[in-house]
Write a structure and sequence with these properties.
The protein has 22 helices and two strands. Helix 7 packs antiparallel against helix 17. It has a single domain, classed as Amino acid/polyamine transporter I, CATH 1.20.1740. 71% of the residues lie in helices and 1% in strands. It has 508 residues and is an all-alpha fold. This is D-serine/D-alanine/glycine transporter. Pfam families: AA_permease_2.
């Protein structure tokens, strides 16, 4: 029978094991290790955020494949993303650091470690900054949809959307400035907000509408993309699920603040994806079977909101919309948290201009406060073009998803190339590691092509997919920078000394 004293000794040994792992990788402990396993899961679950993802992209899916792709595409793509998450989780167990993707890329590469680490880090950084900006913009958009329902005379403008987005991101920055305990608490709340909100919305859509679609409606196909090929239109519809399942590297980035990180972080990644897949399918089915006039819903400014209004009535729909807006705000908050830990770690290894600023930690809160506000400023910089043009804003943040997934692919590929020389952590896939890893890499490459293809016809300045251009600009800048100066000063993840030496540098 365990006593409080024995449990305390066990907890101490866990912390020491975590610290020993960090010291073995060459880093002193500077962050507070207050995230439990549930907190680590919560951050990825919140960033994936099925309410935010599905409500933001459902309308696109209605026109690119319809119910058949929305439902069966969700099932298929979710399984592929789970493979990506499992392959990433195996790497996370071996290298539980805030640097996550770029750190593991540098450690797993046989040659050119600095280059692999450099490009992975910048893809991850740009993808996360774009994600914070895009999530804030989506929240601002739905806040104004609510305002229109509440006050019919209200007419949203581009300027108002940008201002609301800025307020949202700044407030999320303020929340991230305080202790990691507050961030953990907010992420715990967000999990229950999402799950209870899901039950409320799905329950209302089952009970309240006068009519539901027949069971066979799930096979209905629509192609309103403007392209004549139904196959192409349906393939574009797969992006609905891919857009939703991003940011699960958040659990990896929080490793240095998680207890038993070598196990908790990989479990956080895989559980967040698995639970989101199941819960998202339930929400997707509820929305699909509640569609009334298909053409009217598909052509509405916010199709899921139109489904809620038609099926539940205006008053109830507004309550449901508040649940969705709350989920979007939690999503942005968690995304910013993950973003700041990547900046903190990337700067710790000297990869960013002004690195000595961005990897400093507040003595009072034990959080990387300066990294928080760098992430806020960079996200706001991406939002500013929306003041003049929504197309310009979309063009800039379009690198979000493709940048993140390419950053996911690099350490997984390098782990596969390393073969039997890879030393797994306590959480590993065993003999399934290689086949799962190869399937993950192949799917990332295929889905990345989809992300960069035209998504509407006719192709105009407003409908053009700017993701390839945005990605090319990021890679061009990173490449020029690398060959001009970075390759001489950045050799990949650094070590601050032997384990005993870095242990003496611990600040917590």
């Amino acid at each position: 029978m365990s006593t409080p004293r024995s449990r305390a000794r066990a907890a101490d040994s866990v912390v020491l094991d975590d610290d020993a792992t960090l010291h073995a990788m060459g880093y002193p402990r500077k962050l507070t290790r207050r995230f439990q396993a549930f907190d680590n899961f919560a951050i990825s679950f919140t960033i994936i955020n099925i309410l935010s993802g599905i409500f933001s992209s459902f309308g696109f899916g209605m026109n690119a494949g319809g119910p058949r792709i929305l439902v069966f595409g969700w099932i298929g793509v979710s399984l592929m993303v789970l493979l990506i998450g499992a392959a990433m989780a195996e790497v996370a167990s071996a290298f539980p650091t805030s640097g996550a993707l770029y750190f593991s890329a540098g450690k797993l590469a046989k040659r050119h470690k600095g280059a692999w680490s450099w490009f992975t880090g910048w893809l991850n950084f740009v993808g996360q900054i774009g994600g914070t900006a895009a999530t804030g913009y989506a929240a601002a958009t739905f806040i104004q949809v609510f305002a229109q329902l509440q006050w019919p005379s209200y007419q949203p403008t581009a300027h108002q959307t940008v201002l609301i987005t800025a307020v949202v991101i700044v407030l999320q920055g303020v929340a991230n400035t305080y202790t990691v305990q507050l961030v953990a608490l907010l992420n715990r709340i967000s999990v229950w907000w999402l799950l209870i909100g899901l039950v409320v919305i799905v329950g209302a859509l089952i009970v309240m509408p006068d009519h539901h679609r027949s069971a066979s409606f799930v096979t209905h196909f629509e192609n309103n993309t403007g392209f004549t090929s139904g196959l192409y239109g349906g393939m574009l519809g797969l992006l609905v699920t891919s857009w939703t399942f991003t940011g699960f590297d958040g659990s990896f980035h929080m490793s240095e603040e998680t207890v038993r990180a070598t196990v908790s972080a990989p479990k956080g990644i895989t559980r967040a994806i698995g639970y989101s897949a199941v819960a998202g399918l339930v929400l997707m089915l509820a929305l699909v079977y509640s569609i009334g006039d298909y053409a009217a819903v598909a052509g509405a400014p916010a199709p899921p909101v139109r489904i809620l209004v038609d099926g539940l009535g205006l008053r109830t729909a507004k309550v449901m919309l508040l649940i969705v807006i709350g989920a979007m705000l939690f999503c942005g908050l968690a995304n910013l948290t993950s973003n700041t830990r990547q900046i903190f770690a990337f700067s710790r290894d000297g990869a960013m201009p002004g690195s000595r600023w961005w990897h400093s930690v507040s003595a009072r809160t034990r959080t990387p406060v300066k990294a928080v506000w760098l992430a806020v400023v960079c996200s706001l910089a991406l939002v500013v073009p929306g003041w003049w043009s929504h197309t310009a804003f979309t063009a800039i943040v379009s690198v979000n998803v493709v940048g993140l997934f390419l950053a996911y692919a690099v350490p997984i590929f390098l782990r596969l190339r390393l073969g039997d020389a890879f030393q797994p952590g306590p959480w590993h896939l065993g003999r399934w590691g290689r086949p799962i890893g190869w399937l993950a890499v192949v799917w990332i490459l295929l889905s990345s092509v989809l992300f960069m293809l035209p998504q509407a016809s006719p192709i105009t300045v407003d409908s053009f997919n700017y993701a390839p251009i945005a990605l090319a600009v990021v890679l061009l800048v990173a490449t020029v920078w690398w060959f001009a100066t970075a390759r001489r000063r950045f050799q990949g993840p650094v070590s601050y000394g032997r384990p005993d030496e870095v242990a003496a540098m611990d600040l917590v």
